[in-house]
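Data availability (excerpt). The following record was deposited with the supplementary files.
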Amino acid sequence: MGMAASQARLIELTARKSNVEYEGQQINQQRVNLANESAGMFTELMNLQVPIAPKTSDYTSTVYGFSDGAHEYTITNVSDNAASAKYNATVTFYHEETNYRGMFKERSDLEMTQKTDASGTYWYYGTTKLTPYDVTKDKAALEQLKADMAGRTDVSVVNEFNAGRTQNIYSYKSGGQVYYVSITDEAASKAHQPIKNCYAADVKEKVSETKQAYIQKEDSGRYSSITLEGYSDSFPLTSKTETDQNAYNDAINEYNYQQNVYQQKVNEINAKTEKIQQEDRTLEMKLKQLDTEQDALSTEMDAVKKVIDKNVESTFKTFS
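Predicted structure:
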C-alpha cells in the first residue's frame, strides 16, 4: 500500500472510529434514560396502595334485646341521658308486626270462563278456579285493600267492596299470593283486556319507639337489664352478635374492584418494565457490536500506521 493510499485509509478509519465512539455515547445516553424510566416504574409500583380485605369483625356488633311479654324488642340505639336523675339512657327499640298491605296489578294473560261440574257453576281464570268472597277469610284483607287503595277509582274490587256488592268479588291464588277480582271484569277478561287485580300481601313491618330508660350495666361493660319509662318492672337483656351482611358484601365488592384495579396497574407497570428491559438488552447488544468494531478499527489503524511509518522510513533512507 502506497503512502497516499495508507494516509487515505487512516483518515477513513479515524473517521469511522469517531462515528463508532459517537454512536456508543448515544447508546449509553439511551440506556441511562431507560434506567431512569425503569426507576420511575419501580417507584410507581412501590407507591401503589395494596387493597386490604375487609374483616367480618368490622361489620359485627353486639345487639341487645328484651321482651315485655307481648313483643320481642330489638334495641337499635342507646345514648347517655344526663338530663334525668332516674333514667341514665335514651333507648330506641323496635318490634316486628305482620300486616296486610294492599297491592295492585293488571293482568291480561288470563281469560275468564264459566265451567259447571257436579258441585255447581264456577268462574275460572284459564284453569284457575275462582273462589267467591268469604267474609270469614277475606274481610280483613279487603278492609286493608280498601284503606290502601283509597282514592283509586280504577280498582273494581275495591269499588265493589265499598258498595257492599261482595257477592261480585272472587279470589284466586297465584305465586303464593291471594288475588281478588270483581266479576264486573268479565267482559274485559273475555276480550283479553287488562284485569284490575289487587292482592293483600303479608308484610313484616318494624314498629319503632324511643323512651327514657334505666340500664343496668355489669362490671364487664355488658348491659344486663332495662327499666323503661312508664314501666314498673325491669326486663333482662339478651345479647347476640350480628353481622351487617349487606355492608360486608358491599365492602367485599369494593375490595374485589380495588384488587382488580391494583392488579391491572401492576400488570401495566410490569409490561412497561419488560419493554424497557427488552430495549435495554437490544441497546446493550448494539454497544457490544460497536465495542467489537472499535477494537477492529484500532487494530487496523495500528497496522496502517506501521505501513505509513515504514513508507516514511524507506523514503528518508532513499534520499539519505
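Summary of structural features: The chain is about 45% helix and 30% strand.
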